[in-house]
Amino acid sequence: MSDIALFDHNLISPEVQAALPPNHTIRALRSGDYERGFLQVLEVLTEVGNHTKEEWLERFDYIKRHNHEYFTIVITDDVKDRVVAAGTVFVERKFVHKNGLVGHIEDIAVDASQQGKKLGLRIIHALMHIGAKRGCYKVILDCSAKNIPFYEKCGFTQKEYEMAWYVPVKKASL
């Protein structure tokens, strides 16, 4: 199977690519990124789980079929051929703002060995660029209080509050 990109490269910001450190590339997630450590990068955020290659490809194929809504990008270390940063923007279709579009940024992750190189900032700017190119009237994200200063540096302003409800996990009966 060839290394298939999630979406067309014309949505990637050339300005962001130019601002990356040498031997780093920003691009759409590819089907071969399972082997390049994409899931391991996400582990800096939360539990990821043990995906088989088949499970990975099943999810990748679903997102690829919906690539007008889901845009996952990565930064690679080209010398090591490894994913070192990642993020996603998905586009919500609204009735408000005359059927407007809203970009939601999720799952910003930078490998611990690559932190301090402004890769998180580059991922955010690239996702904002994608949101703008897709016609979003705004791009939003949720973050912890400690990350507010970082996102303000990226151009975001604090607005309102996040709420969450987690579905209770059912315990197995004995």
UniProtKB/TrEMBL annotation:
Its EC number is 2.3.1.4. It catalyses: D-glucosamine 6-phosphate + acetyl-CoA = N-acetyl-D-glucosamine 6-phosphate + CoA + H(+). Residues 24-174 form the N-acetyltransferase domain. The keyword Translocase does not apply. Gene3D superfamilies: 3.40.630.30. Belongs to the acetyltransferase family. GNA1 subfamily. This is Glucosamine 6-phosphate N-acetyltransferase. It comes from Phycomyces blakesleeanus.
